[in-house]
């Protein structure tokens, strides 16, 4: 499945995320046995999403048998096919996401405008630790004189304008993480990979998917936060006590 000058990967979906698996590590892609718990009667299936700290896959899913030691049979949501990614942009995992995804994920691949996480199959077979549950101290400060206001988790937040890079819609260049933590994904913007977090999740509150990402830059660090909507730039009485987000206090 590989030739000189080519780098073939099997593209798959699991746990709401997209992954690229080196084709040289694939033994077989097949339908699970009746009942959905094994492949070929003797390979127990393990949900890739569960291995990465997320919830179980829908049954029966698709079985992917990996050439690892020990042999690992994964259940995934769907298989997208094989793609030569030799010419596709490859990016490092953003520093803030390393504790959540490594060693299972070695990097990111932009495949025709869609972002995929490249799996390290030997690390998967050796076993990976559950991802940490990220949390921050209360990061809110006083109302700013002027701010970009966005809504997330039912609350309004103000961002200092100098820290706002852009507000973007979640699409193919966003890849969710299967871990189920406040680190919800990574987004590719202007050739850079930005870690994306749920602010309610970081505060230890329940959270759900939101359609927007607010990209911020502060102190040399790039961060994205999911948002239900962006209200635009407000000032004065229109802010009406909306707290300001102090980015320098995040993760400190």
Task: Looking at this protein, list some descriptive labels.
2 domains; OB fold (Dihydrolipoamide Acetyltransferase, E2P); 46% strand; 7% helix; mainly beta; 252 residues
Rg, Cα atoms, Å: 20 Å
Contiguous helical run count: 4
Taking the sheet with the most strands, its summary is: 6 strands, mixed
Alpha-carbon distance between the termini? 46 Å
Strands across the major sheet, in which order?
8-1-2-11-10-9
How many extended strands? 22
Helix content: under 10%
Give an overview of the whole structure.
The chain folds into 2 domains: 8-126, no CATH class; 140-249, OB fold (Dihydrolipoamide Acetyltransferase, E2P) (Beta Barrel), CATH 2.40.50. The model has no long low-confidence stretch (mean pLDDT 93). Strands 8-1-2-11-10-9 form a 6-stranded mixed beta sheet. A 6-stranded mixed beta sheet has the order 15-19-20-18-17-16. It has a 5-stranded mixed beta sheet with strand order 3-6-7-5-4. Helix content is 7%, strand content 46%. It contains 4 helices and 22 strands. It has 252 residues and is mainly beta. It has helices spanning 48-51, 98-101, 121-126, 199-202; strands spanning 8-14, 17-22, 26-30, 38-39, 43-47, 62-66, 72-76, 78-84, 90-91, 105-111, 114-119, 140-141, 146-152, 155-159, 164-169, 174-176, 183-189, 192-197, 212-218, 221-227, 229-235, 244-245. A hairpin with a 2-residue loop joins β19 (212-218) and β20 (221-227).
